[in-house]
Structure formats: structure tokens, C-alpha cells
Amino acid sequence: MAQGQVFAGRPGFDQRGELVAGGGGAGGFRGRTNILVTRFQANADFTKRYDAALASMKADLYGGGSAAKVLERWTALLTAQASDLVPAATVAQESAAISRYFTA
Predict the structure, then answer these.
(1) In angstroms, how far is CA 3 from the centroid of its own chain?
(2) Per-residue pLDDT tens for 34-45?
(3) 0.70 exceeded by the pTM?
């Protein structure tokens, strides 16, 4: 079984097992729902606070550049020290694909 096929059709992944932008998290752990999550999400006050906290976190990570800096460090490390395992072009391509998820 190819690596991507493990995730094919699961929440956040397409039928080939490729990660879908903005598709993670729906359906809970391994696609199952959680009664506590369902109850909390039904509460308007909780949902409002959750959405505000999520927006703040995204602004800090993506808008503030933290996520990009971490990705740059990992990209540099892999390019410098793992070239015998993965070609630099692949690291660059995957890094660019990951960075497309960095939206505040």
C-alpha cells in the first residue's frame, strides 16, 4: 500500500490520500464524532470563544510569521543534512506545499 493510500478518504484527505487545504479536523478522531465536542459546539458562547481563540492562534502562527520560520528551519535542516534520503527539490516542493496552508 502506498503511503498516501493510508489516509485516502479520511477527513481532511482526498481519495488519493493527499491532504486537502482547510480539510482537517472534521469528524473528530479517525472520522468518529465525540459527544462532548458535539455538545460544546452546540453552545453559542463556547463556539464564539473557540472561534476567537482559533483566529488569535492563526494570527500569531501565520500572520506573525512563526509558522513560516519553523518551516524554514526544517527545510534548511532537511536540505543540509538529509540529502542522502530525500532530494533537495523534493524538500523545496513539499515546503512550498505546506506553506500554502499558512493563512490567517
Answers:
(1) 17
(2) 888 889 889 999
(3) no
The Cα 68–Cα 71 span in angstroms is 5
Do the beta carbons of residue 2 and residue 18 sit within 8 Å? no
5 and 17 in contact (C-beta within 8 Å)?
yes
CA torsion 100-98-19-34 (nearest 10°) is -90
Condensed to tens digits (0 to 9), the pLDDT of residues 74-92 reads 999 999 999 999 999 999 9
Cβ 59 vs Cβ 104: under 8 Å: yes
The residue whose grid cell reads 493510508 is 6
Residue 9 DSSP SS3 = coil
Helix/strand/coil percentages in the chain, nearest 5: 60, 0, 40
Q: How far apart are CA 101 and CA 104, in angstroms?
A: 9
